[in-house]
Specification:
This protein is an alpha/beta fold and about 425 residues long. The protein has two domains: about 300 residues, 3-Layer(aba) Sandwich (Aminopeptidase), CATH 3.40.630; about 110 residues, Alpha-Beta Plaits, CATH 3.30.70. It has twelve helices and 14 strands. α3 links the parallel β3 and β4. The longest helix is centred in the last third of the chain and has 22 residues. The N and C termini lie close together (about 10 Å). About 45% of the residues are buried. It binds zinc ion (ZN). Zinc ion binds next to loops.
Length: about 425
């Protein structure tokens, strides 16, 4: 029998440097030359899949795709009935994004699978890697579409979601070429041993603690709304103030209320990040405003209450101003707790590296939140400088990547007999 990896010499720094070089390579695969922008179902996403497929092959994983186009690194042959432990994250980025968000988790998974190859047979599961698409939810305004598709959770309404050019999710998926990869059927949850995701923290807590790693306790519940205010346009000079039905003024009142409500609710965050004003001319009274609301809280009931309060207030504002208000929920992701046993296992792997293992709630949504509703889920957070993410300034150092890999491998080794 081969010795456990713990007792063999692994050059964690060299492994981390290789991951860093791969991240650098992926960061140049973008729809734009001046920034990292890799939306789902685009040529750049396909090129990134090709690159990752090569690294999967090096780790003796067989690249394949599911019917959504998610990239899977499968272990073959998988023994009959052996469940799969999936390590993954997402390959899409936000516009002008950073190079660690998503990609780092995929590359850590590939590296861990490669390092554990000599003892693969002794593990109680087949170790596989998955790279999901459209986690960010920028293009179709709905997040974690890839992981939801992976579990067969998308309904007709989801498939009809359209991007800003009117292209539906279904059309985008159908016209995305995955030629060259075998298409494989999805796993039923019963065949999944669990899902592990490493991700940058995207917040300042680990930096404040002075620690490179944290164990995720769970992911907060999240809701997205699309709210529209329809009034009447008119000349900015000749329509008197009392006779106006200004859609933007109604929207402004609502935006203020969104902020105030979230501030009054401990643990809640709310953001209006998108606002489209029509016709959008300096001397025309705004006729229509469409805006997005993103609401989050660890407790479902609180989120429901907050969401209901916002809708009610939007209608009141509309009524008092003669504005027609529309409100549509575009996304609801329930809170997901990390598996208690996995949290403990991750905590002991992390504590071995840095002495302690803080447990954090994730305010950001992750594919792990989707998987965690059906299978045991664990998440590892890596410190990122300044807590900055979704920005080119996003940064994780090589020693921090090394800690992340060591913790991931330590966690997996914990399942060896
Ligand atoms: Zn991410």
């Amino acid at each position: 029998m081969e010795p456990p990896l713990k007792q063999t010499r692994i050059d964690w720094r060299a492994e981390a440097e290789r991951i860093e070089r791969r991240l650098e390579r992926l960061s140049r695969i973008s729809e734009r030359e001046d920034a990292l922008d890799r939306p789902p179902f685009t040529p750049s996403l396909r090129r990134a899949m090709e690159e990752i497929s090569r690294w999967m092959v090096e780790a003796e994983l067989l690249p394949a795709v599911d019917s959504f186009g998610n990239l899977l690194g499968r272990r073959r042959p998988r023994e009959n009935g052996q469940p799969v432990l999936l390590i993954g994250s997402h390959l899409d980025t936000v516009p002008n994004g950073g190079r660690f968000d998503g990609a780092l988790g995929i590359l850590l998974g590939i590296a861990a699978a490669g390092l554990l190859r000599p003892r693969a047979r002794e593990l109680p599961f087949a170790l596989e890697v998955v790279a999901f698409h459209e986690e960010e939810g920028v293009r179709f305004r709905s997040g974690c579409l890839g992981s939801r598709a992976f579990l067969g959770l998308l309904d007709e309404e989801d498939w009809e979601l359209a991007d800003t050019r009117g292209i539906s999710l279904r059309t985008a998926r159908d016209s995305f070429s995955t030629e060259g990869w075998p298409r494989v059927p999805p796993y039923p949850p019963a065949e999944i041993f669990g899902y592990l995701e490493a991700h940058i923290e995207q917040g300042p807590q680990l930096e404040a603690l002075g620690l490179p790693l944290g164990v995720v306790a769970g992911i907060v519940a999240q809701e997205r709304l699309l709210v529209s205010f329809a009034g009447e346009s008119g000349h900015a000079g000749s329509v008197p103030m009392h006779a106006r039905r200004d859609a933007l003024c109604a929207a402004a009142e609502f935006v203020g209320f969104v902020e105030e409500s979230a501030r009054r609710e401990p643990g809640a965050v709310a953001t209006v990040g998108e606002l489209h004003c029509q016709p959008g001319a300096v001397n025309v009274i705004p006729k229509r405003v469409d805006l997005s609301v993103d609401l989050r809280h660890p407790a479902e009931a609180t989120l429901d209450r907050l969401s209901a309060r916002l809708r009610e207030r939007a209608r009141e504002i509309g009524k008092s101003r003669g504005i027609e208000v529309g409100c549509r929920r575009t996304q609801r992701l329930p809170a997901a707790r990390a598996d208690a046993g996995w949290q403990d296992r991750l905590a002991s792997a992390v504590a071995e590296i840095q002495g302690e293992a803080p447990r954090l709630w994730s305010g950001a949504g992750h594919d792990a939140g989707v998987l965690g509703r059906f299978v045991p889920m664990g998440m590892l957070f890596l410190r990122c400088r300044g807590g900055i993410s979704h920005d080119p300034a996003e940064f994780v150092s090589v020693p921090e990547i090394a800690c992340g890999l060591e913790a991931m491998v330590g966690f997996l080794e914990g399942f060896l007999p």
